[in-house]
Amino acid sequence: MRSLSIERPLLLVTLAVFINYIDRGNLATAAPLIQDQLGLTTTQLGLLGSAFYYTYVPLMPAAGWFAEHLGPKLALAAGMLVWSAATAFSGLAGGIVGLLLMSFGYLIGPAVGTAVGGYLMAYIGWRAVFLLFGLASLIWLWPWHRLSLPSLPVSVDQPATPSFAAILSRRALWGAALGHFAANYSYYFIIAWLPFYLVRVRGFSMTAMALTASWAYLLNAAAALAMGALTDRWIRSGRDPTRVYKPVMGLAQVGSFLCMLAMVTLPPMGSIAALLAFQVIAGCSYPGLFAIPQTFAGPNATGRWVGVQNACGNIAGMIAPVLSGLLVDRSGRFDTAFALAAAISALGFAGWVWILPRIAPIDWSRTCKTA
Fold first, then answer.
1. What single string gives the DSSP state of each residue in 175-216?
2. CA triple 367-240-311, angle to 5 deg
3. What's the CA gap between 6 and 3, in Å, rounded?
4. pLDDT tens for residues 59-106?
5. Cβ(67)–Cβ(303) below 8 Å
6. For the whole prediction, is pTM greater than 0.90?
7. Of 307, 282, 287, which Cα lies nearest the Cα of 297?
8. What are the structural domains, with CATH classification, of the chain?
């Protein structure tokens, strides 16, 4: 019974992330169709891809505080409600201003969203797909509303609760934040522009693009699942988390650097192979993105630490889509956009390998006053 009470919340949280990324990938999948119907430039498409992050990033630290103080049930329910409404209303937007307003409201998810969304858009149009996915997302609220979350056992020796200033003073936070930014930049560049790139530059049809991109995202999800299980096994066997996570995160950035260059320089089949390799490499880094901050922060600081780290990491979302669109508009090619993504991967290597200290829980009682 205890196992079931833990697995059901985990299943619903996983489903929420799944729905989130299905909806999140719709805009990129629809990009060629939206550009044709609304007459947008590549820069304007990039602005739409970045718009979501203009509210997502500054609100992330507040969301971490909210989750710590008011609990996950209310936080997730409110977020899903607003998210679903924004996705549905995106299908009613009449131009770039309407789409910008809806983007402001809004791992296997990209695989399903790109595959199903791409095929549906080819037959019923992008507007109907946004409406369908947005309304379907609301179904998640029913089982979540009925869920009773298990209470955690109370320990006599409660860990100290650090202040926000104490969290911000940690070198580990900023090393992880830089690494997170670099990992997100390449991923958001790909997720924002992959459908457009395959259709406009590589000459794929909408259905061929949907098949190729969805397989790439599926490999990404499978790699994340496999690496999560593997790193858990290594740490349970007694290995130092530093020796587990640092090599994985560093090598992922090296692999990303090479794949970004290969995708734009190789012929079509080589480019697709590099894309698939990148998705595997990126997937292998995902467990560390959130296991590392939770290890450092502990239960009383994880929400705020992850909020700050994730906000810094998702600044990449504010920059990558629109900057890439601007570079493509000015040069008529994707070369410089891919080269920039490769260069930022090198910064990520520095964050994970050189700036991040030894990965171990921080004793907040020795370093800060309790809140």
1. HHHHHHHHHHHHHHHHHHHHHHIIIIIS---HHHHHHHHHHH
2. 55
3. 5
4. 667 666 666 665 656 666 666 666 555 555 555 554 444 444 436 333
5. yes
6. no
7. 307
8. 2-147+164-362 (1.20.1250.20)
